[in-house]
Write a structure and sequence with these properties.
TIM Barrel, eight-stranded parallel barrel, two-stranded parallel sheet, single chain, 10 helices, alpha/beta
């Protein structure tokens, strides 16, 4: 295992992946055959990475006992970024994903949006979500709550009010938002977007993703709040046409990772803490690429390393004094 800290005026960089238990990862052979239980898999993952994004909370509300068990199975310095429930980000949500006691009477199938539910049901879902997150936060292991908005949510005052409502519901926990509509980055909208998020202490998620689509966001590295968050989606040609597996099926080349390692080191100088998450989650590729990227980040900086030699990483070490949260651009070459 490698321990990576801060050096040369940089913030702490934490590297991990989006999910540790999806089916294709389990089937890929990344976990040894003997590691065949949920508890064992999380413990194995946490020996190799110090950060993970919880994906399951987007699809359904786990039991509080489940999130409490996650806390117990991970080291004290481990960090969970928790993806928000799909209904909170305007995605049509299967009724079956709602806790049974909060489903509308007489309905058990189909999909709903926020407007389809009584206000008390929507408030109840938020209360349940906070209960689920609380064990992670109480243990000091919560990084950010990630809100990933759909491509149809474009830039505008209504959308900004939606983001503020979400952020206020989550305080004092940290919030990061990922938009998938290019209008947020067009012309003067970009300056307003970054300033708006910085004023309200909300992190914007920087992304590496396929370009040329309506949902494409340029790979601009930004620090609007702490921590900064970077997600890697890959560059599948099936981004809008494929299923979930094909959409994220991508293996980063060594030269791509080397270029990104350099950019991330520069970016880390603008923030106290940088979360880097590989989301090309197909057949264990995210775990392999995250380990390779971590290896490029660590030794190149002269950070001390100790471990098994398997390109594993868990971030540790001190962080720098707080810096300005004014949104700033880092130079990132286009693809």
């Amino acid at each position: 295992m490698w321990w990576v800290g801060t050096k040369y005026g940089m913030g702490e960089i934490k590297v991990g992946t989006s999910s540790w238990a999806d089916r294709s990862l389990i089937a890929s052979g990344w976990y040894p055959r003997a590691v065949n239980t949920p508890a064992g898999r999380l413990a194995y993952y946490a020996e190799r990475f110090g950060l993970v994004e919880v994906d399951t909370t987007y699809y359904a509300m786990p039991a509080v006992e489940t999130t409490a068990a996650w806390v117990d199975r991970t080291p004290p310095d481990f960090t969970f970024n928790v993806k928000a429930f799909s209904l909170f980000t305007s995605h049509p949500t299967p009724l079956s994903a709602l806790p049974r006691d909060l489903r509308p009477a007489g309905r058990d199938d189909g999909r709903v949006r926020r407007g389809d539910l009584p206000p008390e049901t929507y408030e109840g879902l938020w209360e349940r979500f906070r209960e689920v997150v609380e064990p992670i936060a109480a243990a000091g292991k919560l990084g950010v709550l990630l809100f990933q908005f759909p491509p149809w949510m474009g830039y505008g005052e209504t959308a900004k009010r939606r983001i503020l409502d979400i952020a206020e519901r989550c305080r004092p926990w940290r919030v990061a938002i990922e938009v998938r509509n290019g209008s947020w980055f067009e012309g003067d909208n970009a300056t307003d977007t970054f300033g708006f998020l910085a004023r309200h202490d909300i992190s914007i998620v920087s992304v590496d993703m396929p370009q040329g689509y309506a949902s494409s966001i340029p790979p601009v590295l930004l620090a609007t709040a702490e921590p900064a968050v970077m997600r890697f989606h890959g560059h599948s040609v099936a981004w809008e046409s494929g299923d979930k597996q094909e959409k994220f099926r991508y293996a980063y080349r060594e030269d791509e990772l080397a270029q990104w390692a350099e950019r991330l080191r520069d970016f880390a100088r603008e923030t106290k803490e940088l979360h880097v998450l590989l989301n090309n989650c197909c057949d264990g590729q995210a775990q392999r690429d995250a380990a390779r990227l971590a290896g490029l980040l660590g030794p190149d900086l002269g950070w001390s390393a100790r471990g098994t030699g398997d390109q594993s990483i868990r971030s540790a070490g001190s962080v720098l004094a707080p810096q300005s949260r004014t949104a700033r651009r880092s130079p990132v070459a286009g693809r």
